[in-house]
Amino acid sequence: MDIKDLAWNETQSKRFNNSLFPRSIRGLIVGKSNCGKTTLLLNFLLRPGWLDYDNLMVFGKSLFQPEYRILKKALEEQLPKEAIIRLFDNGDEIIEPVSYPATGLNGEKPNR
After folding, report:
1. 37: closest CA among 7, 68, 6?
2. Beta carbons within 10 angstroms of residue 37's beta carbon
3. In this predicted structure, what is the pLDDT of residue 13?
4. How far is CA 4 from CA 10, 41, 42, 74, in A?
5. Which SS3 state, helix, strand or coil, does residue 72 take?
6. Domain ranges of the chain
7. Residue 7: its pLDDT value, please?
């Protein structure tokens, strides 16, 4: 019986990660609180030329942090990496939307 080599050919992969990383990568970022894990991850994911990815899974206990919520929403909206970086760069200029009551200034419901 002939055995055929069915191994994946890495040279056919279309990934363009930084030369410090292999074409296919899985990793863990581990460290104590406030040591820069989120900053490192965001740089890996968003800086041009670092990681090229189609599928991203992030696991952690702190995914409620604003950085992860913003990243998740931006990726769901298919924003380019450059636009997501601008969101973080201009975060102090972005204001929260204000909720107004369903009544008008005089306490009347607006006509719809």
Report:
1. 68
2. 16
3. 59
4. 17, 39, 41, 44
5. helix
6. 13-93
7. 77
Return d(Cα 55, Cα 39) in angstroms, integer: 20
Cα dist. 86→24, 47, 73, 82, 93 in Å?
Answer: 27, 11, 14, 6, 11
Q: Which two tokens stand for residue 66?
A: 């604003």
| Short-list 65, 16, 78, CA closest to 37 | 65
With beta carbons less than 8 A apart as the criterion, state whether 57 and 30 touch. Answer: no
34-93: pLDDT as tens digits: 999 999 999 999 998 888 888 888 988 889 999 999 999 999 999 999 999 999 998 777
Please enumerate in sequence order all residues whose Cβ is within 8 A of that of 23, keeping only pairs 6 or more positions apart, or say none.
10, 13, 15, 17
What pLDDT does residue 93 have?
Answer: 76
Of residues 48 and 95, more confidently modeled: 48
Helix (H, G, I), strand (E, B) or coil at 47: coil
pLDDT of residue 1: 77
Under 8 Å between Cβ of 51 and 25: yes
